[in-house]
């Protein structure tokens, strides 16, 4: 089986994406510990119950009493996270988590609005730039893809150790831009 150049880049990019995701998670986790971010254990049982519904539904529960679907449970969690962000607006980690949660719930507009605001308020925060860029790079819009490339360049200037990951993402963006120009 012959693999062409583009397939090779896709395979390498996929492997690198997995490694980069792990590395970013490790980096974010270490930054949370250093910044004194509030641990998840600070959530009360009421917060957890509000977010995920009751732990054990009744064995003879009717259809109306079934646990909430996951999206509704997540929206309850979002409401709690929004309150935490409002109460502690200087906590960038919580705002990043909220923006990523919006994105996961397919509210990309809210996610990008929050991330762009964070980027404007914190122009020297590489983590904000990377988070914004990784969401923008999923777009099919050429301007958003170019913005993501620029954000990765800025993140590299601020934090050179993210260079390998950022360059890998920029390679994915170049392939995507190339494919879009061929359409």
Helical proportion? over 70%
Would you tell me the overall average pLDDT? 77
Helix count from the secondary structure assignment: 8
Oligomer: single chain
Distance between the termini: 27 Å
E-strand count: 0
* Rg, Å, rounded: 19 Å
Outline the biggest β-sheet. none
As residue ranges, the low-confidence spans are: 32-67
* Alpha-beta classification: mainly alpha
Return the string of H and E elements. Answer: HHHHHHHH
* Residues in β-strands, percent: under 5%
Shape call: globular
Essential attributes:
183 residues, mainly alpha
Report on the architecture of this protein.
- By secondary structure, this protein is mainly α.
- It contains 8 helices and no strands.
- It has helices at residues 5-35, 45-52, 70-87, 92-104, 108-121, 126-136, 142-158, 163-182.
At a glance:
By secondary structure, the chain is mainly α. It is 72% helix and 0% strand. It is built from 8 helices and no strands.
């Amino acid at each position: 089986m012959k693999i062409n150049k583009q397939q090779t880049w896709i395979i390498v990019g996929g492997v690198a994406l997995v490694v980069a995701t792990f590395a970013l998670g490790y980096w974010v986790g270490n930054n949370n510990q250093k910044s004194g971010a509030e641990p998840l254990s600070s959530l009360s049982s009421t917060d957890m119950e509000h977010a995920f519904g009751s732990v054990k539904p009744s064995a003879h529960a009717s259809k109306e009493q079934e646990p909430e679907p996951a999206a509704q449970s997540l929206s309850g969690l979002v409401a709690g996270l929004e309150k935490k962000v409002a109460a502690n607006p200087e906590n960038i980690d919580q705002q990043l988590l909220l923006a990523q949660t919006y994105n996961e719930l397919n509210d990309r507009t809210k996610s990008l609005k929050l991330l762009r605001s964070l980027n404007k308020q914190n122009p020297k925060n590489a983590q904000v730039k990377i988070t914004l860029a990784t969401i923008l790079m999923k777009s099919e819009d050429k301007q958003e893809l170019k913005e993501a490339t620029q954000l990765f360049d800025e993140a590299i200037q601020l934090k050179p150790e993210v260079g390998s990951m950022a360059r890998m993402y920029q390679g994915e963006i170049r392939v995507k831009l190339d494919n879009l120009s061929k359409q």
